[in-house]
Design goal:
The protein is an alpha+beta fold. The chain contains six helices and five strands, in the order βββαααβααβα. A hairpin with a 2-residue loop joins β1 (about 5-10) and β2. It binds a DNA duplex through α4 and α5.
DNA sequence: GACAGATGAAGGA
DNA sequence: TCCTTCATCTGTC
């Protein structure tokens, strides 16, 4: 079995995200590391390595970068690359699919997501699935708030979540 | 099998 | 109101 992932940098206004692709699509997205004064090492995939990339991945990466920029600017992504959720549970995928339905400026609570997937009591489990989301930003876990409209948590940091919501016109 | 968790709701002060 | 407690469900180790 070949689970090797191809890692590519996605340059955005918020820094350099790292996108990891499998043979079937975007598998992971990593937030920019706080690494001031040392720009991301694009060398890692320059030259010959880049030429070895399958055409599909190059195209997915263009879509991913464009989608990232749109979402970070508070707009809806025009399109998304295929997402590779291989190995993830049905429950997690259901939660993430539900989050994908949320447009910019729209939020739901953990409880609402739980009800939407037909498991109204699985609110804590929804929180767990959010935390396990391998593709933040594109799968908009930042649009999920606690029932009292508090910000809840965020794997990429509460401040990042607050900033992204603010760009979409939501003040917490 | 036990435990932890990005919650929610209910009850008491 | 605000705070505390507990029920619930799922994932991970």
């Amino acid at each position: 079995m070949n689970n090797q992932l191809v890692t590519l940098p996605a340059l955005t206004r918020d820094g350099v995200f790292l996108a990891r692709y499998s043979e079937t699509g975007l598998a992971e997205l990593e937030f920019p590391k706080p690494n001031p004064g040392k720009p991301f090492q694009l060398r890692a995939l320059d030259g010959a390595s880049r030429r070895l990339l399958p055409g599909d991945i190059r195209q997915w990466h263009r879509i991913t970068t464009a989608a990232l920029k749109s979402v970070l600017a508070g707009r809806a992504a025009k399109s998304l690359p295929p997402l590779d959720w291989t190995g993830k549970t049905e429950f997690q995928q259901a939660v993430w699919r539900e989050m994908l339905k949320l447009g910019p400026g729209k939020t739901k609570s953990y409880g609402e997501i739980a009800r939407a997937i037909g498991k109204p009591k699985a609110v804590r489990a929804v929180g767990g699935a959010c935390g396990a989301n391998p593709i933040p930003v594109l799968v908009p876990c930042h649009r999920i708030l606690a029932a009292n409209k508090l910000i809840g948590g965020f794997s990429g940091g509460i401040e990042r979540k607050r900033a992204m919501l603010k760009r979409e016109g939501i003040e917490i």
